[in-house]
Design a protein that fits this description.
The chain has 402 residues and is α+β, with helices and mostly antiparallel strands. It has 11 helices and 12 strands.
Length: 402
Amino acid sequence: MNKTRKRPIGTAELRRQAERALSTRKKKAAPPLVPKADSRRLVHELEVHQIELEVQNDELRRVQEELEESRAKYFDLYDLAPIGYLTVNAQGLILEANLTSAKLLGIRKGQLVKKAVTRFIAREDQDVYYLHRQTLFETRTPQVCELRMTGKGGVPFWAQLDATTVGDAAGGAAVCRVAVSNVTARKQVEEELRRAQSSLEEANRELQRMFAHEQQFARTDTLMAVHNRRYWFELAGHEFEVAARYGHPLSVILFDIDHFKLVNDRFGHAVGDQVLERVSHVARAALRSADVIGRYGGEESVIALPVTTALQAYHVAERIRAGVAGIRVATPKGDATVTVSIGITEMLLAPPAEPAGGEESLERLIHRADEAMYAAKQAGGNRIATWSAPAERPAGNTQERL
């Protein structure tokens, strides 16, 4: 029913309406017998009063109709709202609830009144609610929180509570109006997204680990656990450029296992691989973190030692030579032992003229270290030879220090 609300009729207006209605009725009715003056006034007053009662009755019916209309709107807007509404006092007791909240909590609407809200909140989220309510009543500002509530049959659901405080019209005590929204579907989507994001991040980390492993694999000689030839040249080339730019010393060590073929022939390739691993371990243990070691080819290994003179490199080489000489790999045919021949050279800041000509380079350093290593082998192996400039070379082309 759609009617425009009218203002209540005042006493004077009611009297005027009654007088007009009575005058209209008298005109339509047959002329009555004329009583005495007092009787006429009494009859008139009675008739006016009767009409006043009729007008008041009409007004009451109209007000009743408007109340019924308001009650219907209230039922539609409040009780049948798509979200739950609760009125809760400062002690956490429910004062009023709509049908939707009762449906969410799995209890009849009338049974919610005077019940504590905490009765319907999951144990794990009780502290969340207490903090929410405390902040709400202390600050008197709107508060929002998300927690798990218990629904019909004890089935939990995620709820968002939007709460505000208002003064109670009766006693002035503050109460809070709470809008309860079921956000379980959103939380499930968020959790699925979180799991998907976590899975993607883990997959990305795994890809990064695989990529790093592949890079390491591509740069490493797996048997000797040192850099492969290509990557060694990349790292050593950088050290060479730094040394050339700033005038720092740089030395190169090249070493080879003496008569390694005899080890493979006598003990087999599996033992030969163990020997290579042990030799590599001894060499790596003698180096600094800044030194760059790689497998040059076959049983040959090469080391670049930044900021290191040939004399300093000699002491490193001696630790390697002595360590390798002490290796013992037990086999059914006896212990497998090996020695190494080591060549050393130092970067020349002002290289002498050579038949090949050209400036100093990493390749020239390796070539000179190879010459020194070959000289050590020619001298019987298990020794160290340091390359020197042609004008300084003694006969035999080496400087041996054992």
